[in-house]
Design brief:
Number of helices: 14
Number of strands: 3
Helix content: over 70%
Structural class: mainly alpha
Distance between the termini: 27 Å
Largest sheet: 3 strands, antiparallel
Shape: elongated
Mean pLDDT: 79
Low-confidence stretches: 55-60, 451-483
């Protein structure tokens, strides 16, 4: 078994690993984009070199001067990008510091919640031990068990009789002549008919042997009703005995001050919930900053776009295009070498851009996984699965599930469903099924959970739902618990 706190720690570590992986991919994209920027600068220099070897442009330095100005402007835009990125990184560092401080505060508060919950659990255990040693309490508990046993058997007997009525009564209900007389109450004081109709009804009654059939059909209908009435009476008696036992449980808990301890747990839990709300807000702010940083890494921030678009426009200038066309048309090796170098740079640029696009697609998937993990962690906390006494399967199972999620073999909804199915609440000392808690109608023995929702619903599996005994003819009695 692994505690809820350890399971949450595993989820936290998976979130951290996912963030680290995203940061690594962002770093790779940043590196490729830096190489693209270097390619642009190198291409600018190629155009300068090409202008120098072209004799017809040597007398006009305007092209080279324009290239110098364009390069300086692009460098200025990239400088603004670096400044904005440094400011963003500073904001991210501060946001992460706030979140870590809150996580430390949460850990301390969660420990206080656990301590108070364990105090309630220990108090419940002491009260249960005292009640178990009380002869009068044991007698009442035995009364409930016996009353439930009798009610259950009576209900089952009534149900069998009702089933028999349906099966054996089919032949009667399928006879139209018998049912005609039955519905007219023939043979009873309620029958009303005169003259010819009365004579004809008598003739039909002799024809179908109605007198004996009516007696049999009456008994077939009356017995289940009487048995169900008896079962309902026993059920009401079981309810009364159960209520008396529950009242003893509640009175004992009140005498030992357990409700007051539960109020302390509730107050400490409210403080923990408030910290979780602050953490959620801090993470939301951090996610906004991380999304901005992702734009910088992908070269999609405002400054990088301006620099790239500006240089792309400059390279499309007519004088530069003409310069390149003329170089391709001449037999001189000097300009041919430069043009060949420019073509190689363009091939490398296309390869780098393809790499960036591939990395962007990968990072989108990781960002989606991170968002789902953070959502699952929030649900985990809201459900209070990290409370004292909350347990899951072994730690390897939790790690395996998280690994399957990261590898795309398990989606978020199914991961959460499995975690919910695996979660159990086991107080360390008290027994939720003690006394009135052992009859499938809910339990007053919260073991430190109290009426807090989340884990309280899980204790409901032991159960806190007040699902009453029996029900419309079904015989749903359960002894359960320690009986």
């Amino acid at each position: 078994m692994v505690s809820g706190r350890q399971a949450l720690s595993n989820i936290d570590q998976t979130v951290t690993d996912a963030r680290t992986k995203i940061a690594s991919i962002e770093s790779q994209i940043e590196t490729v984009n830096q190489r693209l920027a270097e390619q642009q600068q190198a291409l600018t220099q190629d155009y300068k070199d090409l202008a120098k070897v072209r004799v017809n442009l040597m007398a006009d330095p305007e092209t080279a001067r324009h290239l110098d100005q364009a390069e300086q402007q692009a460098l200025a835009l990239l400088g603004q990008r670096e400044s904005a990125l440094r400011e963003l990184e500073s904001q991210l560092q501060a946001a992460d510091g706030v979140r870590q401080t809150l996580e430390t505060e949460r850990s301390a508060q969660a420990a206080r919640v656990d301590a108070t919950a364990q105090a309630v659990d220990a108090a419940d255990a002491r009260t249960q031990a005292r009640l178990h040693a009380d002869p009068a309490y044991r007698i009442q508990r035995e009364k409930v068990a016996e009353a439930e046993r009798l009610a259950m058997h009576a209900s089952e007997k009534a149900t069998r009789s009702e089933d028999e009525r349906e099966q054996k009564g089919a032949a009667f209900r399928g006879d139209p002549l018998f049912m005609y007389l039955w519905e007219r109450s023939y043979g009873t004081p309620e029958y009303r008919s005169w003259g010819l109709f009365r004579m004809l009804d008598g003739w039909v009654a002799k024809l179908v042997g109605f007198a004996d059939a009516r007696a049999n059909f009456s008994r077939l209908n009356e017995i289940p009703e009487r048995l169900r009435e008896h079962a309902n009476g026993l059920q009401a008696g079981a309810e009364g005995e159960f209520d008396a036992l529950k009242a003893l449980d509640e009175a004992a808990r009140a005498a030992d001050g357990i409700p007051a301890l539960e109020q302390i747990v509730a107050r400490e839990q409210e403080r923990l919930d408030a910290i979780d709300a602050r953490i959620a807000n801090a993470e939301s702010d951090q996610q906004v900053l991380m999304a901005r940083r992702a734009l910088f890494a992908a070269g999609e921030d405002e400054h990088t776009r301006k620099a790239v678009n500006f240089m792309a426009a400059e390279f499309q200038r007519e004088d530069l295009m003409e310069l390149r066309r003329e170089a391709l048309a001449t037999p001189y090796p000097e300009d041919d070498l430069i043009v060949s170098q420019m073509l190689q740079r363009e091939d490398e640029r296309r390869q780098l851009e393809a790499s960036v696009q591939g990395l962007k697609e990968v990072i989108v998937q990781h960002q989606k996984q991170l968002a789902e993990l953070e959502s699952l962690r929030l649900d985990f906390k809201r459900s209070r699965y990290d409370r004292a006494g909350s347990t899951f399967g072994d730690e390897a199972m939790i790690g395996m599930l998280l690994g399957q999620f990261i590898n795309g073999m398990l989606d978020r909804d199914n991961l959460w469903r499995i975690l919910r199915e695996q979660q159990r609440y086991r107080p360390q000392r008290s027994d939720p099924g003690f006394g009135s808690g052992g009859f499938g109608r809910g339990t007053v023995w919260g073991g430190g959970v109290g009426d807090l929702g989340g884990l309280g619903d899980i204790v409901g599996g032991l159960g806190s739902g007040r699902d009453r005994l029996g029900g419309g003819g079904g015989g749903g009695f359960r002894t359960g618990g320690g009986f």
